[in-house]
Write a structure and sequence with these properties.
The structure holds 2 protein chains of 2 kinds.
Chain A lengths: L2 E10 L2 E11 L4 E5 L6 H8 L7 E6 L2 E2 L4 H6 L1 E4 L11 H11 L4 H14 L15 H13 L5 E5 L7 H13 L5 E6 L2 H5 L3 E6 L2 E6 L1 H7 L3 E7 L3 H5 L3 E4 L4 E5 L2 H15 L3 E7 L3 H9 L7
Parallel strand pairs in A: 3-8, 3-9, 6-7, 7-8
Antiparallel strand pairs in A: 1-2, 1-4, 4-5, 9-10, 11-13, 11-14, 12-13
Chain B lengths: L1 H17 L1 H24 L3 E2 L2 E2 H21 L2 H8 L1 H6 L5 H28 L9 H25 L3 H17 L12 H6 L1 H14 L6 H24 L3
Antiparallel strand pairs in B: 1-2
Helix pairs in contact in B: 1-6, 2-3, 2-6, 3-6, 3-7, 3-8, 3-10, 6-7, 6-11, 7-10, 7-11, 10-11
Classes of the chains: A alpha/beta, B mainly alpha.
């Protein structure tokens, strides 16, 4: 196991940011933490990367306790923070040089690693340019190169594509994909499509994990089709004898085959005297999974 | 662990020599002090300890150059906090005290370099003992270690840039003017004079540049070494507490 987390609790001034989070991440997998802002994603990553101590619970990263053996953990991980943490007044090469020194690399090996990392991430021709002249995407790539250059066992990425344009996002994901199997990747995101790329995901909301598993399994778990009904009266939900969830905007009905059930819903609505204002059905996406477990769209959260 | 010290040292040096305006900026205030006070009072025949006024304040000006530069240099901790680089240091797989040590040594060398430039400018105007130049630079380096550490300690414990500048401004001028750099401190304030760590740097620099000192030079040396160790420990302590 690359990461083992047991019943993690973090309290800030009496408010629980994390409320008993437990999960495991296998070696070599890409594990995603999906949740809205303020769900506890960054708090979790800060605890796992030893930047913050948990109030309760335990966490082991690369086999070491994040509180007791913080230095051992730090040697084995690479981190890309949500906001920039490179020195903008130094060149890309100098940033990597300093990082390499800090992680105990030196001499020819250090220089070789810097070259390799810059080539891997496609910044070799900008190595001597001051980072403040880089674009947002180049900066993020440099941070990824830096986080990988000491060959960590586990790479942590906190919202790796936040604020980047679609092309750059796709490019960043190419790099992440190319690590699959070699490096364990733990990332947080609030983009549904990015969560789809992960081997496994945990959906976190209000400091608790509400669902965990492979994206396909999570989708399968909520069933075949989802019917979204917007009635003028929510009495309708009570009248339907099926797996029903009521959210702010819709009554969501989880069924095997929506095309057969749709007429029945109209009949039921008729019989209880409720008018249907809107109806649609979808094959479940992760967005539906999120909505199903949290009662909200990830965008509104 | 030395690699971490070196990494931070390298970084501070690189940044310094890239920011040319800073290089000149911090040297400007002491230079103006020297030109306007030193030359002005010399023209009026003001003499202290048997020296003309410009010669009298020369060592004080040199020490003031590295003192202000190193003390204010502590602010880079706040910049790093604001612009993110601090996180790179906080997650380093090494004790934070090493990162602090590298940073303080780097900044102190650059401050000493500034003091050296000031010394060269001063040499154009007044006569000082040439063989005293190197020991004076050592004094500057130790003084910079002390006050850069104090600056780092303050920067680590305040939340904002404004807070840092408030505290440093509040301390800077009293420390300079009550160190005997610009005039012999009146007896009334002798307690503060002797409690001020900068007093011993100025006195020792004056000893090396002019041969005249008010305090036993060896005692000066002990005090500046002791205060730089004390402030370095304080800096480490405060830096460790950053979350």
């Amino acid at each position: 196991m690359a990461i083992v987390v047991k019943n993690l609790v973090k309290t800030f001034d009496g408010i629980k940011a994390l409320n008993g989070v437990s999960f495991r991440v296998k070696r070599g997998e890409i594990f995603g933490f999906l949740g809205p802002n303020g769900a506890g994603k960054t708090t979790t990553i800060k605890i796992l990367t030893t930047l913050m101590k948990p109030t309760e619970g335990e966490a082991y990263v690369a086999g070491y306790d994040v509180v007791e053996d913080a230095v051992e953990v730090r040697k084995r991980i690479g981190i890309v923070f949500q906001d920039c943490s490179v020195d903008k007044y130094l060149s890309g090469w100098e940033n990597l040089y300093i990082h390499g020194l800090i992680y105990g690399l030196k001499g020819d090996l250090l220089r070789k690693r810097i070259e390799e990392s810059l080539k891997f991430i496609g910044l070799i021709e900008f190595k001597d340019v001051e980072v403040r002249k880089y674009s947002g995407g180049m900066m993020r790539r440099l941070e990824i190169a830096r986080a990988l250059m000491h060959k960590p066992e586990i790479l942590f990425l906190d919202e790796p594509t936040l604020g980047l344009d679609p092309q750059t996002r796709a490019k960043i994901w190419e790099f992440i994909e190319s690590l699959r199997g070699d490096v364990t990747v733990f990332l947080t995101t609030h983009y549904i499509d990015e969560a789809e790329n992960c081997d496994r995901i945990a959906i976190i909301d209000h400091g608790e994990i509400v669902a965990i598993g492979k994206p396909e399994d999570l989708k399968r778990r909520i069933g075949g089709d989802l019917i979204y009904v917007k009635p003028n009266d929510y009495r309708l939900a009570k009248a339907i004898n099926a797996d029903v969830k009521v959210t702010r905007d819709y009554v969501i009905i989880n069924v095997n085959d929506a095309s057969k059930i749709l007429p029945e819903i109209f009949e039921i609505a008729n019989s209880v005297g409720v008018r249907i204002e809107e109806i649609k059905y979808t094959r479940p996406t992760l967005n539906d999974v999120f909505l199903y477990y949290t009662g909200r769209e990830i965008r509104d959260a | 662990m030395l690699n971490v010290v070196y990494a931070m040292f390298y970084r501070q040096m690189r940044r310094f020599f890239r920011a040319k305006s800073r290089l000149i900026g911090t040297i400007l205030t002491p230079l103006f002090f020297f030109l306007f006070f030193g030359m002005g009072f010399r023209a009026m025949n003001v003499r202290f300890l048997g020296m003309d006024y410009a010669t009298f304040i020369a060592p004080g000006i040199i020490v003031m150059t590295c003192f202000t530069s190193s003390f204010i240099g502590g602010v880079s901790v706040i910049w790093d906090k604001e612009f993110g680089f601090l996180k790179e240091v906080l997650i380093a797989p090494a004790p934070r005290s090493y990162a602090i040590l590298g940073r303080v040594i780097g900044d102190s060398l650059t401050s000493t370099f500034q003091a050296f430039m000031m010394l060269l400018l001063i040499l154009l105007i007044v006569k000082i003992n040439l063989e005293g130049i190197f020991p004076t630079l050592i004094v500057c380096f130790i003084t910079s270690l002390a006050f850069n550490s104090l600056g780092v300690a303050i920067a680590s414990s305040v939340r904002s840039m404004e807070g840092f500048h408030l505290i440093t401004n509040l301390l800077m001028f009293p420390l300079i003017f009550l160190s005997g750099a610009f005039y012999p401190v009146p007896d009334k304030y002798k307690i503060i004079f002797y409690m001020n760590p900068l007093t011993y740097s100025v006195d020792l620099a004056r000893y090396f540049t002019t041969g005249i000192s008010l305090i036993e030079p060896f005692f000066d040396f002990i005090v500046i070494i002791a205060s730089s160790i004390a402030f370095l420990l304080l800096a480490t302590l405060m830096f460790e507490r950053i979350e």
